[in-house]
Design brief:
- The structure is a single chain.
- The chain is α+β, with helices and mostly antiparallel strands.
- About 15% of the residues lie in helices and about 30% in strands.
- The chain has four helices and 15 strands.
- The strands form two sheets. It has an eight-stranded antiparallel sheet with strand order 2-1-5-14-7-8-9-10. Strands 3-4-15-6-11-12-13 form a seven-stranded antiparallel sheet.
- Strand 11 and strand 12 form a beta hairpin.
- The longest helix is centred in the first third of the chain and has 37 residues.
- It comes from Aquimarina mytili.
- InterPro entries: Alginate_lyase_2, ConA-like_dom_sf.
- One of its GO terms (biological process) is carbohydrate metabolic process.
- This is Polysaccharide lyase family 7 protein.
Amino acid sequence: MNTINSFSTYLFILSFCFICGCSSDSDSDLPDTQEQVTDQPEDGDGTGNDGDGGGTGDDGNGGDNGDGTTNSDIPYEVLELKNWKITLPRDFNNDDLADEVYLDKSRNDHSEDPSFTTYKDEFFFVENGNVRFSCPTENGTPTTGNSSNTRSELREMPSNGDGEAGWDATTNTTKTLTFKVRVIQTSSTSKFAFAQIHDFKQSVWDDLLRIQIESDNPNAKEGDTGRIYILGDVTEGRASDGFPVDFRSLNYSERYIKNNYTLGDWLTFKVTVQNSVMKIYLDDMNTPIRTYDNITCKSNYFKAGVYNQSTQSTSTGNGIAEFSEITVSENF
C-alpha cells in the first residue's frame, strides 16, 4: 500500500513539473517575438507602412522626403523646373553674350556645362531649401544681345527639350504662372524684375509684363523697404506705337501694387492669361489685384529670376531674389 502511495505521489510530482516546464518554455519565447516586431520598419507614426522612403538619390544630392520637400542642392530638382532654361551673367564661350543652359545639354552655349537638370553655380543655387538667383550689375557683366541689363533668369521652354516656343494669349486655354518669391537685395540701381511675360515674334509686343521691386535706397538689404510694381506693355504701351489701346493712359497710374514692401518678406503671385485677358493675383489667389484686356500677342513665354533694371557703367552690387515655388502650366 505504501508502495502504491509513493508511486502515485511520484506521478503527481512528475506531472506538475512537466506542466510548469511547458509554461516556462512558452514564456521564454515572448522576448524573441517582441524583438522581431520591434525591428520592423516604421514610417514615423509606428504603422510600419514605410514605402521606398525619402532616402538620397543615386547622385548623392538627396531625394524626396515624402512630404513634397527635397534635400537636393540642385535648383532643377528643388523647384521641379522641367519647363525652363536659364540665362546667366557669365560668358564662358567668349562670344560676348550671356551664356544659356538648356535641358538638352547639346544646346548649351558652353560645351562643358551640364544639362540644366543638374546645373548650379554662384548665380543660381539652393539656399535653405529655396532657389536663389543672384545677378551682378558691374560694367562688363555679360548680357543678352537685345538688352543692356544683366540677368540670372529662367525662360519658359517646352518640357520635352524642344527649342524656343511661344503661346497665344488670345485662345481659350488658360496659361498660368504661380510663384513664391522674396527679394533679398537690390543693387545700386535699386530695381529689378523678378517675373516677366515676353513676346518674341511680333513687331509691336515685346515685354508684355514685368513685375519689379524698387527699393527706397540703393543696395537695399533684408529689412529695408520698397515697392512692388508693374511695367511692360500693359502699363507703358501707347496706341501710337501700334498697340490695340493706349495702355499707358489706361494703366500706368495704377502700376504700383504693393507699397511699403519689406525686403525679405515672402510674396505669392499668380498670373493667368486667357482670351486676351491677363489677371495678376498677389497673396489672395481668388481675387486679382489687376486685370488687363486687349492682350492680343501670340508668341509669349514666362520668365522668372533676377533681371536688373537701369544698369549703367557705374552700377555696383547684385540683385538677389529667392523662390520657394515656380509652377507653370503646360503651354506648348
